[in-house]
Amino acid sequence: MMRLFILAIFSSLLLLKQVSLVPGDVGTASSYGPPYIPTACEGNRREQFPPGNLFVAVNEGLWDNGAACGRRYRVRCVSGNNRPCKGGSIDVKVVDTCGSSSCSNTLLMSNDAFTAISRFPNAKINIEYTQI
Questions:
Q1: Closest among 28, 47, 43, 61 to 129, alpha carbons compared
Q2: 2: left (phi > 0), else alpha (psi -120 to 50), else beta?
Q3: What residues contact 117, with CB distance under 8 A and at least 6 apart?
Q4: For 31-82, how does the pLDDT look when each residue is reduced to its tens digit (9 = 90+)?
Q5: How far is 83 from 91, CA to CA, in rounded Å?
Q6: What is the pLDDT of residue 7?
Q7: Is the terminal CB of the chain with fewer CB neighbours within 10 Å at N or C?
């Protein structure tokens, strides 16, 4: 009986080790400014931008051949040089790709989106993001 109990506990611990405690993915972000159109998602349509201009362009890994258009992510600044994070999170909408080899960030955030989570507009920050 004791062997069975120990085996159950050991198995449970192994299973817990497999479960991630981080609620989202991690990456990097910086800001980009206007002009924001045309975008790869909806071209010159101004209606594509959500209220508050909280939108992003995503790297090739998230772009998924354009399937990312319209996806929404909850984004939170977690760290960066000189403690840039304001705290809290924001919800953003994908409207474009930064799909060139020079795109070194996971997300390029509109100026409004970036300043909502970072104290420094020209910083490169570490983020946590989750598709919502």
A1: 28
A2: alpha
A3: 75, 76, 77, 85, 86, 88, 89, 90, 125, 127
A4: 999 999 999 999 999 999 999 999 999 999 999 999 999 999 999 999 999 9
A5: 21
A6: 47
A7: N
pTM, to two decimals: 0.80
Lookup: tokens for 31? 């800001």
The count of other CB atoms within 10 Å of the CB of residue 91 is 14
Cis bond upstream, residue 38 (ω within 30): yes
Q: Write the DSSP string, 30-77.
A: EEE-S---SBTTTBT-GGGSPGGG-EEEE-HHHHGGGTTTT-EEEEEE
Token pair belonging to 87:
């705290």
